[in-house]
Fold this protein.
Amino acid sequence: MKQALIPVIVFSSILLVGCNQDKTNASNEKNTPAVSEDSSTVRAINTEITPSTEENVLQDTPDYAAKNEGELSIQDSETAYEMCVIALTDYYKAVWNGSDIELGAFIDNENLKQYTQNKIQYQFDLYLSHNLTDNLVKSVDIGTREVEYTDDVDGGFLYLNLPAEIKKTVGSYGEPTEFLVRNVNGKLVIVDWYTGAKDSYDFMVRGENLTIDNPNIWDDSEFVKKLNSKQGEFSGSIR
C-alpha cells in the first residue's frame, strides 16, 4: 500500500451537537434508539443544545459528495471530517440519550451498519440497566487532528483520528475514534469505525490497540462472523 506524499491537513476544533429530540426521560422509561438507513434527518453544526433547538432543527441530510465523482483525494478531507464528526455526535446521543441515528447517511457496508447498530443498542441497554441515562449528552467537542490520504488499488482512502470530549449534563469524558473513508459512487462513506479507549465496546469486542488501516475489513466474512459471535455474547450478558 502506497501512502501519498501530502501536506498535513489540520482542522480547527469545532463544536458539533445532535439536535433531534432525546428519547429518554427522567424516570428511566426505556426507549430504543432508532437506527435507520434513511438519510432524511441530520443534526446541526455549531448549534448549542436547548429545548427549543432539540425540538425544531430536523433538516435534510447533506450530501457528502466527493470533489471528483470518480476518485478520492486529499481535497475531500474537509467533507470527510465534517461527515465523521456528525456521525460521531449522533452516535453518542444515540448511546446515551436514545436519540435517533440514521446510519445510512454515513455507512454503505451492511456488515459495518449492523455491527454499529448492535453496538449502539448494547451500550444504551447497559447504561439504562444501571440507571445512567438521565445524565444526557449535551454536546460533543472534537479536538484538532490531522487527516491522511493513502492510495490503493481501489481508489484510495482517508484516515481520520478524532479525539472527542463528550459533555454531559453532569461531567464529561473523552475518547479517540478512528475512521476510514472511501469514495463510493461519488459519495463519501465511512468504511471502518473504531473507538479504542480502554474498556470501550470496540476495545472489548474487536480487540485492543488495533491498527486501523484496512478499508475492506468489513467485506471479510471470517472477520464479520467472529464479531457477530462476540456481539451475541455481549448482548446476552445484560439480559
